[in-house]
Sequence to fold (204 residues):
Amino acid sequence: MNDLVKIAVFVSGGGTNLQALIDAEKSGIIKNGKITLVISSNPEAYALVRASENGIATAVADRKKCSGEEFESEIRRLLEENGIELIVLAGFMSILSGKFTSLYPDRIINVHPSLIPSFCGKGFYGLRVHEAALNYGVKVTGATVHFVNEIPDGGKIIMQKAVYINDNDTPQSLQQRVMREAEWIILPQAVEKVCETINKGRVK
Ligand code: GAR
Fold:
């Protein structure tokens, strides 16, 4: 049996994607990794409650109270202290600098609520992504899980899943359906895939 890959999940809000990861670990969909730490950029994030209720260590790096450099050095300290091997951005609303992402090549993954390269990059986050998709009038949207590099939403794609748009969709109804039909399914699958690859690459 390989060692479990130590995962840190970065959050900023409700944490439904974190919940999907916790459930996937419990049900055995994630079997090569363990959620070891949850880091929130927002002290009020409900995701922190979800983590604590499931016995997962939490930390807050308050993005509003420090500079970008202080924020990232605090995160690096937490990652090193906890021996983290894989970072999962799950509803994390801060953009990490190229200096930070270059330290963890192919070791940071993100879930984005559209089919990249549509409706992504700087300024496209949360409900804004779904508003943009509805305003444009696309008939299909979805979610993407990708590696994170210095380009916002620009790293290599790991998985995507399409979701059809209904005529009467609002940004809120579309957000819920994209989460339920795409994000909560492909994020755990992608995490397991990357953890398996890390485990297979370990020097025995
Ligand atoms: C999710 O839809 C996630 O894809 C999106 O924010 C929501 C967070 O929900 N992330 C982004 O837009 C990042 N660019 P959650 O906190 O309930 O997981």
